[in-house]
Here is the input.
Amino acid sequence: MNRNETGWCAVRHQTIIDIYDYWNRLRGASDAPLKSQIEPSSLGHLLPSLFILEKNDDLGAVTFRLAGTRICDLFGRDLRDESFAELFGDGHADDIEATLLGAMHHVIPTLLNATGYSTAGHQATFEIIVMPLRCENGCRARLLGAIAPSAAASWLEIVPLDFLALDRSRLLRDKPGQNGGGSNWPYTAVAEPPHGFSVVLGRMMSSLFSGVAPR
Here is the structure.
C-alpha cells in the first residue's frame, strides 16, 4: 500500500490520500471547498468508500446524508440518516460527535484511526478522514469523508461490523506558509492521546488558533 507521512502522521490507504488530494485541489486558497463543487462523476472508483455527513438539527446529531455502497456493506445496512457517532461503541459517541462538530466549526480536516469488531469475533483496523465543506451562504454544516480498511481482509463487506472503537484522532492544519492547492498531504498533524479525548480536544482546538502547542 502507498504511504504518506508528515512527521509521525502516516496515512497508509490510497483511498484516503486520493480523496484528500481531490478535496485539497477543489478548495484552492480557501479553507474548504463549496459542497456544490463536489462532482461524483469525477470521483470514479472512490465513490463506494465515500460519505457525506450533515448537522441534523432535528435529530441533534451529525448524520449520514450519503454513504457509499462499500461503507453500507461494512455495516450490513443503509446508513442514510443514521448518526455517524453511534457507529462507535465503548462510550466514544460523544467524543466523535464533538470531533465532527469541531471539524465543521473550525474548518479543520480530521483523521481517525479505528478498529471495527463483528459479532462473529472478527476485527479490522480502519482509516477515516472527514473534511469540511462550505455552503454558498457561508454555513459549515457538512463533511466529506471516507472510510478505508488499513489492510485487506476476506470477510470485510460479507460479515457486518457491529461497532467501531476509536484508537486515535488527529486534527490537521496547513504547514506554515502553505495554504491549500497542493498535494502530497500538505498538513502537519496535532497529536492527541487516546484517553481523555474531550479535554485534549478542547486544548487542541484552542492551540490551533492561538499558535501555542497543546500540552
Notes: Residues 1-8, 181-215 have pLDDT under 50 and may be disordered. The two ends are 33 Å apart (CA to CA). The longest strand covers residues 161-174.
